Amino acid sequence: MNPSLLIALPLLIAFLIPLFAKLHKKLPNILVLFSTLINVVITFSLFNAVMKQPLVVKLGNWNIPYGINLYIDKLALVSLIIISVLTFLIAIFNLRNIGELDQSKFNSMFLLAFAGINGIVLTGDIFNLFVFIEIAAIATYVLATMKRKDSYQAAFKYIVMGSIASVFLLIAIGFTYSSIGSLNMAVIARSAAQLNPSLLRVITLLLLVGIGIEAEMFPMNLWIPEVYSKSYVGVTAFLSGVLSVAGIYAMLRVYFTIFGNSGLYIYLTLIGAITLILGEFIAYQQDNIKKMLAYSSIAQMGLVISVISLNSIGSMQAGLFQLLNHSILKVLLFISAGFMTYAVGSNKIKDLAGLGKKMPIAGLGFSIGALGIMGIPFLNGFVSKMMILQNTLGLEKYFITGLILLATLIEVAYYLKVVQTLYFKENVLKVKQLFPCIIPIGVLSLTAFYLGIFPQSVLNILNQVSSQILDNSNYIISILGGI
């Protein structure tokens, strides 16, 4: 199938939803489910071809580098699989849980954000990277405001931070185009070594700010706690589990494919470490379950960034596996927590007392997610945490190893506090009886166990992805050939 459908199909249906909503109010939900399912099918249909060689799609039959191209290699494929499957599961969750929202508006924005995220992964043009980031950002701005009026202030912070990031990103693209004369990523990658070192440092630092808002990097992540705590839970799961994957993907493309200069990675290591520690310490202090998960998400992104910046195949593989595990577990945590907070009408951790018994499916889902994040054996988080520790020790990055161990201890403290509240305290609030969405909770929980027991099935692919990321010559040759 044509990979451009991964962008075109959700984009088309997003604009058609208001029309179908006039025919029947349930049609928007069905269309979203259909669109996300088709994207899963298309993504997996590309698997065998991409594993053999990267796919290059010329849009409008314009020759590269004059025209725009889409590009799918193993990194893009893995990212698309994570994004499409998690978005489909979130769409299933949304079927039963967006009754209080404007379904036509919500579903249109949801698919528009999905199309933008797919575009971030697929594009081979740095200006179109900016365009797709803006599409995803504008759609998520709207999604963040849809639950209630007190979400407006949080969404405004998000808009302000996003606008600042957009300006930095656009300035970086302008400097790049004026210096190299092309917006094609492969052409830029081929010519980046000829740039003035000072100019290269300015461009990459600008890009770091521009992309950092999607990758949840400090200090561009200041919008996250308020938005996550006040938005509809399907939106927070989407932002944490899906948009963050696109942010890390864009970071990898910029820092390893386009500007592959190992001297720049110290910035990523430093910012990743700051993000990790600040996120964990602030998460520990929260009494709001959604804010706690928001800061935990920030910390996990810091961990991923600091590990992949160590610039070895092993550390890259460990970082990517941690990213995959984070996405699975955070969506599981947000969905499970969403059921419980809605049932008691409160986001306070103390008000969730006893819900592990009264809402066993949601309680079990949250517990599995929490144990996975902590790195308990037989769950996926344990494997990636051990890989990270082994690689940091092997590379003699003892400071990073120490920070990761400290962060893990803090995680254990605040997640066990919640699990203890769920199962060992009594609830004094009236609990609404809800029928939980078994499919997303069940699929995500089973996946966490599967990857914890049989991780090699994924690690073999991630090893190939890591090798490809650290050698950008394949990217350049695949797109430009002998040009």
How would you describe this protein?
With 483 residues, this protein is mainly alpha-helical. Helix 7 crosses helix 10 (224-230), helix 13 packs antiparallel against helix 14 (313-344) and helix 14 packs antiparallel against helix 19. It has one domain (5-480). The protein has a two-stranded antiparallel ribbon with strand order 1-2. The chain contains 21 helices and two strands. The model has no long low-confidence stretch (mean pLDDT 85). The longest helix has 32 residues, at 313-344. It has helices spanning 5-21, 27-45, 47-52, 74-97, 103-122, 126-144, 151-180, 185-191, 197-212, 224-230, 233-258, 265-284, 289-308, 313-344, 355-358, 360-374, 380-394, 398-424, 438-453, 456-469, 473-480; strands spanning 55-58, 69-72.
Task: Detail the topology: elements first, then pairings.
Elements: H1 5-21, H2 27-45, H3 47-52, E1 55-58, E2 69-72, H4 74-97, H5 103-122, H6 126-144, H7 151-180, H8 185-191, H9 197-212, H10 224-230, H11 233-258, H12 265-284, H13 289-308, H14 313-344, H15 355-358, H16 360-374, H17 380-394, H18 398-424, H19 438-453, H20 456-469, H21 473-480
Antiparallel strand pairs: 1-2
Keywords:
single chain; 483 residues; mainly alpha; two-stranded antiparallel ribbon; 2 strands; 2% strand
